[in-house]
Amino acid sequence: MLDLSLSEKTSSLLRASSTGWDMSDAIEQRLNLSQCRFFFDFDHTISKIDVIDDLIEHFAVDQKWRDLEQRWQSGEIGSEECLRGQFRSVRVTQEKLREYLLGIAIDPDFYRIFNLLKKAGVAPLIASDSFDLLIETILKNHDVQGINILANSLRIEGDRLIPSFPYRNQACLRCANCKTSLLCNEDSLKKVLVYIGDGRSDYCASLSAHMVFAKDSLAEYLRNKGKKFIPYETLKDVYKVLKGLSHE
Predict the structure, then answer these.
(1) Of all helices (H) and strands (E), which one includes residue 161?
(2) Which of 225, 223, 216 is nearest to 45 (CA)?
(3) How far is CA 240 from the centre of its chain?
(4) Residue ranges of the chain with per-residue pLDDT less than 70
(5) Is residue 206 within 8 Å of 213, Cβ to Cβ?
(6) Domains in the chain, start-ordered, CATH in brackets?
C-alpha cells in the first residue's frame, strides 16, 4: 500500500471535497481533525441568541433599526451599511453593556468542541459579523480563552457604540466582514476548510468551505444551492461528528 505524506493525503481530500461533503463523505475519506481548519460563526451558533439583534433591540432609542434590518434581509443593503445605521440608534454606557453581556449564554458544548480540537492540536477561529468587544467579553464571562477572533471592531464613546470594519472587502458591498477572504487566506492552504454557521452572514463563506455544518436559513440556502452539508440543531450535534473524526 502506498504510504502518502500528510500533505499528499490532504491534497487528495481537497480534490474529493470540491462539491461539498456530508457525514458519509467524511467517514469514507477518513478525514482527521488535524487535516482541517475550523471556522465558527458566533451569533446563534456559539451564543444561544443573536446577540447583535438582541442588543440593538434592548438599547435602541427609536425604531429606525427595524427598517434597516428589513432592507438588509431583502438584500437591498449590505451588512456594513445596516450595522452602521442601526448603531446610531443605540445608547448604552460601558457599565450597562458589561451588565447586559453577563446575561448572554453560550452553547455548553462549545467547551467540549474547543477542548477536543485543542487536544488534536487544532486552533479554531471565530469568523463573525458581530464585534470583537462583544465576543471577547462573552467568552471571557464563560472562561473561554485563547481563541482567535476575526470580527468587526467596536469602541465605546460615552453612551455610543462606534463600529469599524477591518475585514471588509472593498470589492463587495454585501458583507461587513468578508468571511470568504478569511477562509481562503494563506494559512488555510492545503487544509480542509470546515465552517459552522446558521444565517445570512454565513452564505458566502459556506460556499468556499469544503465541509459545512448548517442550521436555519444557512441550511435552506445550501439546500437550494445543491451543496452538501451536515445539519445540526445545537453544537452537541457538531461535537458528536468531530469526536468521530478525532481517531482517539
Answers:
(1) strand 160-164
(2) 216
(3) 19
(4) 1-19, 186-189, 247-248
(5) no
(6) 6-244 (3.40.50.1000)
